[in-house]
Specification:
Layout: H1 3-15, H2 19-36, H3 42-59, H4 63-85, H5 100-124, H6 130-148, H7 154-171, H8 175-200
Helix pairs in contact: 2-3, 2-8, 3-4, 4-6, 5-6, 6-7, 7-8
Amino acid sequence: MNLSVLMNSLVEAFANTTFIEWLIFGTAMIYVALAAIENVWCWLFGIVSSILSVYLCYSGQLFLESGLQVFYVAVGFYGWYEWLYGSPEKRNLTIQNSSLKQITIYIFISCILWIPFGLIANNYSTQALPYLDAFITAFSIVATWMVAKKKIENWLFWIVIDAAAIILYAKRDFYLIAFLYLIYTILAGLGYISWKKKLNA
């Protein structure tokens, strides 16, 4: 496919994008941008985006992704509270580094979730791309908890997760959402740099 054909396909896909996809795009972009600058209001936009995404993912037969969005709503409220009162002094939570042992545990837990999620989705549902969706679901659960706890390594997890999500959504013809995850990947890198500067300040 040459560049002209690709651009025409993208333009057509964007023109056919539904209103709910645009809403998800806008609220999700605000969420990531605010999270990257450590603004607590990111959680409000994340919750709204996730509620809208439940419907979109379910209608697209991305069942694990749909369930993940329900989880995001719950963690959104938890993260909002943690960022405001999560420190030992019940004040704003500060950015933290994870030890190598902690990171290994995060990856291990993610893999433990990934395997059964993939098997269930592959054998007992009409799930599209079951193992890829299971990977995104499992690692996103852990990464979202890391955001709520202000673990700086969450951004490194999101770079990998968002890159995988680009493939997942493009395969389902949700091109705007796929484009959103491309921007997410970039913002995750910028978020890591921003949090690293604050941590070292």
